[in-house]
Amino acid sequence: MSLIRRNKGCRINDELRFKGLRTIVMENELLRLTILVGKGTDIIELLYKPKDIDFMWISPKDFKEGEINRYDFLESYIGGWQEIIPNGGSPCIYKEVSLGLHDETPLLSWDYNIVEDCYRKISINFYVRLKKIPLFIEKTISLTSNSPIIYISESIKNICNEEIDFMWGHHPCFGNSFLSSDCIIDFKSREIISNSISISNFPLVKPNASGTLESFPDVNGSYINLSKVLGKEEKVADLLYVTKLLKNWFSITNLKKKLGIGFVFNKDVFRYLYLWLVYGGGNNYPWFSSTYSLAIEPWSSYPGLGLIEAIKNKTSLKISPGEVINSWLKVVVFKRDSRVDSIDENCLVT
After folding, report:
1. Dist CA 310 CA 274 (whole Å)
2. I want to staple 253 with a disulfide (CB 3.0 to 4.6 A). Which of 116, 260, 313, 334 is the partner?
3. Distance from C-alpha of 144 to C-alpha of 174, rounded to nearest angstrom
4. Does the residue 1 lie in any domain?
């Protein structure tokens, strides 16, 4: 429990509940994070206060208190940003364990300790032991006064006597007051590939194809510039993988609002990006063509078809008995009305 109450500077409120789930708000003068400790440490709000813009997508589902099904990712998906370990994507069987879609960190209640709580800086350490696979996860989220940067350091420990394969991903989904056709996507890569099959009846790109951010084969036999975010009226949806990432960052900039968000991450762990483009075309269950969102996701492994497929293509991570793997990620909100060329590890945007 936070023992210090302030109404300015950095502050923590850990005496909240959302839809019946334990919830923490971390904030400074510029940013406010709302974190569901009771479900995956999902960040369901990432608000830039000066412009009252929340970057996170919100599900149109009307969840009531106690209705969030923490045994099924889609039935519990209320939007925002999830961390996903050990299974990314489709259900599979691994070491005789049945792993569901995006199982299992987003479905678990985490514990936490407040590490630092003062006007200039706040830090919270979140931790969980997985139920199905013997891994122990820790992450610390920090904010500093008057800074538009979120700092995350994290680790995974193997607490059994066998080597374990796993996938590790961050699933931030953008939408709502930020996302529009005025947005541009930037990152540096040599190759992007599309999913082996289209994820909706209204695909944007040719399945099982390769290209670049500025030129990718579309379903009409031409090429599309994926860096340009499309409007909801386009009614398309697709999934792609950035397989040859050159630099460890990505950004989305709303040129009209003159505001952007960038992620910088440990490329030794997060070697790929997923592009989940749902520009109004996510038909049938669970979206029924009613959603408009964009997720750009740092991942250790691909494709998003489950751990077994990542093992087959040798992109899964492996962790030995007793081993600890450390990683980090930073998020920066910035003012800008032009494309981004670079974001360094100090979150300097140029």
Report:
1. 14
2. 260
3. 23
4. no
